[in-house]
Specification:
It is a single chain. The chain has a five-stranded parallel sheet. Helices cover 16% and strands 15% of the residues. The protein is built from seven helices and 18 strands. The chain has 427 residues and is of the alpha/beta class. Helix 1 (82-97) crosses helix 2. The mean pLDDT is 93. 34% of the residues are buried.
């Protein structure tokens, strides 16, 4: 009929389409018979899986009933063939040789575990995790492939710090110990945000940069919460539609070059740390680098997490007025104040700044740096900090406060130089 057998062009210039790929190196070319297909028609898949049910004749998704089906129309590799396994092996070998040490296995529910591991487990990866949504694990995927992506924990944190209108429920935040039922922390990685859950506009129930300060407080709590072993931050670009790529690449372009994150003078082309909830519409829709992982407090909280992760949590204060404080172990302390959202008001108004003076935290005496206020990591020996907390010899806070919609975090390893002895009651 004169039409190209592979009419589509990928980012690297190789062609694909009509259930075939030309490849870029020769060995990665794939004809239609490399994919599962109808017995008498190699141009049509055996079955399909996608929205809204994501099922393939079985009432559950963990039984591999979809393992030979095309996902969203994408042809499914026939991993019963050695030629296909060889292609997969060489792709993984390339990644390993270039220094990649961690992988995410996409659509893990629709992969045959045995076939996947025949190529995957021939390399010494440091960490592998699977795209997982909320299914109760059946025990085989984490045994042979990797850990689970647990998306439910971020929803629970978002609910308590943004959506919930009843301030008396805030202490429930300290009861968080898991996201998806059945996924143990030892086998989980928790993302704060993820690609498939993005929205064009700010939605309070969905954690993205578009929610501004509200999202940043959730990100800070994510880092400060000691009961999770592995978390994953989001650092990316903005969008007005979720179909957009990075800055420099606009819809309708056949080819593009993303704009660099660093400018020619080595300054970052990143959005400043937000100060309101949600972001102003013009800022939220502007196509730019966001770099959420570089916002104020993130680097300092990475240090806090290294010092305090895994320590037992005890509640210090919960007034029922949108204020919450807890300790992790004997030398780590966190306090926060709920914020408000101008577009999605919760009804309790502005709670204001919280003075911590007089709060008994029983930390070692000294001047502490609020690492959640640092623009970079805490440096041992530092004598000043954007926000400080002073603890007396009796373990009572002498001075220090938490801003509305923010989080404060201090630990004994981030005390400021020039500490003076602070007697009980001293100022």
């Amino acid at each position: 009929d004169g039409e190209d057998v592979a009419p589509c062009v990928g980012w690297n210039g190789s062609t694909y389409g009509n259930r075939r790929m030309s490849g870029a190196r020769g060995w990665d070319a794939a004809p239609p018979d490399h994919f599962h297909h109808q017995p008498d028609d190699e141009l049509h898949g055996l079955c399909g899986v996608g929205a809204p049910s994501y099922l393939c004749g079985s009432p559950i998704t963990t039984d591999c009933s979809c393992c030979k089906c095309d996902l969203y129309g994408m042809p499914d590799w026939n991993t019963d063939q050695q030629e296909v396994l060889d292609i997969h092996y060489r792709h993984l070998e390339e990644l390993n040789d270039m220094g990649v040490t961690m992988l995410r296995v996409d659509a893990a529910l629709y992969e045959d575990v045995g076939q996947t591991t025949r190529s995957l487990n021939r390399f010494p990866w440091d960490f592998v995790y699977m795209e997982w949504w909320g299914e109760y694990p059946v025990g085989i995927h984490d045994k042979y492939i990797g850990d689970y992506r647990d998306v439910a924990l971020t929803w629970k944190i978002c609910d308590q710090l943004a959506v919930e209108k009843n301030l008396t429920k805030l202490p429930k935040l300290l009861d968080l110990s898991y996201g998806v039922f059945g996924i143990d922390d030892a086998k989980a990685i928790y993302p704060i945000a993820y690609h498939d859950k993005r929205t064009d506009e700010a939605v309070q129930e969905v954690p993205t940069y578009k929610n501004g300060l509200e999202y940043h407080q959730q990100q800070k709590f994510f880092l400060a919460w000691p009961k999770t072993t592995r978390i994953m931050l989001w650092g990316g670009f903005s969008w007005s539609t979720t179909e957009q790529g990075p800055p420099g690449c606009e819809l309708g372009q056949d080819f593009c070059t993303p704009e660099p994150v660093f400018k020619e003078d080595n300054t970052m082309a990143c959005m400043p740390t937000p100060t309101s909830s949600p972001l102003p519409a013009e800022e939220a829709q502007k196509h730019q680098w966001i770099c959420e992982h570089r916002w104020t407090g993130v680097a300092g909280l990475v240090g806090f997490r290294k010092a305090c992760r895994g320590l037992p949590v005890t509640k210090v204060e919960s007034s029922g007025q949108g204020r919450l404080a807890f300790k992790a172990g004997d030398e780590c302390f966190v306090a926060l104040v709920r914020g408000t959202n101008d577009r999605f008001p919760q009804g309790y108004g502005n709670l204001g700044e919280w003075s911590l003076a007089g709060l008994a935290v029983n930390l070692p005496a000294g001047r502490y740096c609020d690492v959640a206020a640092l623009p970079a990591r805490f440096v041992e020996g530092a004598a000043t900090c954007p926000r400080e907390v002073v603890v007396g010899e009796d373990g009572v806070i002498r001075s220090g406060s938490v801003l509305e919609g923010d989080l404060l975090a201090i630990h004994a390893g981030a005390r400021l130089a020039g500490n003076r002895r602070l007697r009980a009651g001293a100022r």
